[in-house]
Amino acid sequence: MRIRKYDFDFSRRAFLEKTARGVGGLGVLAPMWSVAASTGDISKAYPDELMSIDMFTKGKIKTGDYVDANNVDIVKDLLDPIQYKNIKEQGRRIKIVPTTRDLTHMYNADHLEATLRNRGRARWAADGNLTTDTNENWLGGVPFIEPKDGKEALANITMSWGRHNFSLYTIPDVDLKPDGTIGYEYEFMWAELQCQARSDGKVFQDRKDLLRLQSVWFTRPNDTKGSSFLSIWYYDQRKFPDLHGYFPAFKRVRQFPTNQRFEPLVPGITFFLSDAWSSGDPMLTWGDFQLIGRQPHLAPVSENWQGDQPNWDKKVHGGGKGITFYETNFQLVPECVVIETKPTGYPRAPVGKKKVWIDTRNNMYNSSITFDRRGEVWKSFETGSGRQVKGDNVHKNADGTPAWSWDYCHVHDIQSNRMSRFYHAKASPTGYKSEYDPSYDFYNAYLTTGALNRLGK
């Protein structure tokens, strides 16, 4: 039997003290990364109450239980305000699964290796961009594993979204009207290529001026099929990406203004380019970064990948017609940082600020909320993620290790009650499949203006 040495509010007081002092170290009882160094297990860094929802709620909610309208008030402070409203008023439910204790299950193996290899080397250059102790561009992995402020926390996401050198995702999307009926359905492909900040430490084609290339193209329905976009991101986070687009009606590639990042790409969808990975804009076009809190959190960071289903399909429930929300698994996150930031580079942005919850175990966001210019809650961007392992079903990286990736997104405009939900599927009927770091020439296949023409046709 383990004797309790700390009262129930010990963790809360410890987090408040860290936030007030601006202390960056992770863990409550011991430094998290030091504890995990030998086995990857973080258990001894936190008291029992932060490693078990059963103990945190004093048995009112247990692992395996569902949180719904009847009991959500018990954990209201562990959810973002839109998640709470979804559960309390709109028929959503979430299932509680065990807290992940093994850090290696929250990373791709090569990304974790790069994180540890480059630990402590991140610096800020005079122009505000990320550099290293030898004045190089970032070499790969999470730059600030113990973020001390909001800028460091956001850099951990911005520098490498999907945490693969290259990734291709098949994405079925459903966009719901305020009454819960389907307004639009799309399928699109999303490709990401890291030019720098790669896990292998290399620079793609010696393009030291670029951070990433990212493209999206729609494969259905027929009236949007062929619409495609290419974003060319500069390493200098003060610069807007170059945005190229192809529409079948025009039959040519056009360049678009890239400071209009708060608009839907296609009708009906609530997802904006700015929302991507909760860091869809160059980091230095936002500012006033603040780390406003440290706390436990409920988040969908494991056991959401449906690898035993034909196309990794997901079940739905809730909302006006019973089809608004995915069935999702949440766990108690022992420690997350909460940051706020404002879009300083966009004078006409409809967003006033963004609030982001970031899991300190892998420094990846779990959810974010945007507020309008009046300060009212506007839109959520909730992303499930985790290891792509379910029983005997395993989606692997190119090196044969189990993949970590995002799993689904809920993008809920709470003011209009319009909802977009989409998930990471296995393959498209058009022949594309989700994959990481394949051996073929994916750059020329998906990430050039010539590719946009070809994909559009």
Automatic annotation (TrEMBL):
Gene3D superfamilies: Lipoprotein localisation LolA/LolB/LppX. Pfam families: DUF1329 (PF07044). This is Uncharacterized protein DUF1329. It comes from Panacagrimonas perspica.
